[in-house]
Amino acid sequence: MNIKVKYFGQIVDATNTNEELVNVNGEQISDLLETLNNKYSQLKNKDFKIAQNKELVSLDTKLNGSEIALLPPFSGG
Amino acid sequence: MEGAISSNFIGNSIYKHQTKTSIGAHNIFLGQVRADVIDGKTVAAIQYTAYEDMANQKFHDIREAAFKKFDLTCMHIYHSLGTVKAGEICLFVFVSSPRRKVVFKALEYIVEAIKAEVPVFGKEIFEDETHQWKVNN
């Protein structure tokens, strides 16, 4: 499955791109994360949460094809 | 909104509420960029980026929750995107109610929710043009 993945803040320092389509083998967020960790070696050192379709999800959440975002610690205000 | 929030904009927002005469109390929070000194380097500005679709949805959710929880007449939230220099305003939250006690509680609730739930990311730019990513306490 091809998933649109967006990167924000310091995550972009690890990926050097703001968004891309990622081909995932598997059904869960954890499968996508494994793919990304293999692709970007520096990602393991980063602290982030994952959103699917603009809601935070956990590693065992099922991928439903909607947009994914990797969100480092929020620092608004 | 792009860049710093001007005192003119804030003053004008207050002015616009003069026609809403059921209001008896306003409360305003202004977030200002602090010139923190970190390892001998001074923060000159913060560059804000956001996951805008999710941020707008979260602002909407916070707004709905605040209206449900508190007897508010109106509320407004403005957050900067892009570069805001030290000393300039990056967050403006404005709540209004018939009674004062409500706005004290509501404002704190809303500001804390923004800090915790809205995906905005601040990059602290030092005077020597190096940077570090800001983390909220």
CA distance, first residue to last residue of chain A: 37 Å
Number of helices of chain A: 2
**Which CATH class of chain A?**
Alpha Beta
Flag low-confidence runs of chain B. none
Number of domains of chain A: 1
Rg of chain B computed from alpha carbons, rounded to a whole number of angstroms: 16 Å
Structural class of chain B: alpha+beta
Query: Biggest β-sheet of chain B: count, sense, barrel?
Result: 5 strands, antiparallel
> So, CATH architecture of chain B?
Alpha-Beta Complex
Strand order of the largest sheet of chain A: 2-1-5-3-4
CATH A-level architecture of chain A: Roll
> Which fold name fills CATH's third level, the topology of chain B?
Aldehyde Oxidoreductase, domain 3
Instruction: State the end-to-end CA separation of chain B.
Output: 24 Å
Q: Could you report the average pLDDT of chain B, rounded to the nearest whole number?
A: 96
Care to count the β-strands of chain A? 5
- The low-pLDDT segments of chain A are none
Per DSSP, what share of the residues of chain A sits in E-state strands of 2 or more residues? 25-35%
List the secondary-structure elements of chain A in sequence, H or E.
EHEHEEE
**Any idea of the CATH topology of chain A?**
Ubiquitin-like (UB roll)
Q: Which outline of chain A best applies?
A: globular
